[in-house]
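seq:
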Amino acid sequence: MILPIYAYGQPVLRKKATDIDASYPDLQKLLENMFETMYDSSGIGLAAPQIGLSIRLFIVDGTEIEDINPPDFKKVFINPQIIEEFDEKWDYEEGCLSIPHVRADVNRHSKLTITYQDENFVEHTETYDGMAARIIQHEYDHIEGILFTDRIHPLKRTMLKTKLNNIAAGKVNAHYRMKFAKK
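struct:
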C-alpha cells in the first residue's frame, strides 16, 4: 500500500525517533509498504518519520545508482547508530521526498561506520563510503529529527524560506501523495 509522505512542517519530522524490537506489530507489512511508497515517489531512501512513524527505521535502495558500492545496495536499517563518520567531506546536491522541488548542496563525510539490525533483527556493523554513505547519512538524519535543509549554508536556507513555507502550507505539487501539517 502506498502511504502519504509527510511534508516539511510536520512535527514528526523534527522528533528524535525511538527504538523498536521484534515485537513491533506488522513490521514486514510496514517494510513492504515503505518500499512500495519509496518506489512510487521515485526515492532512493525513506525513513519512518517520513510516513508519520517516530521509530528508528529507514530503508534504502541505491541499486540504480551507477558505481555505487555495494552494487546491490538495498537494505533495511532498524535501530541504527552511526559509530563514526570519517575521511574527507564533500558537497553533493541532495533532495528529499518530504521537501519536494528543493535541492541544495550538503557537505558530508565520505565514509561512515554504522551498527544496525536488519529486518530479522540480526545485528550488523558495516562501513560504507561514497553515495552509499551519503544516502545512509541523509536517512539517519531523519530519525534524529534533522532535515537536509538544516545542513545547508544559512544564506541558501534563507533563500529557500518561501519555498519551505509553501511546502509546509501545502502549496506544492508533488507527483506522489503527501500529508501536510494541519493549519
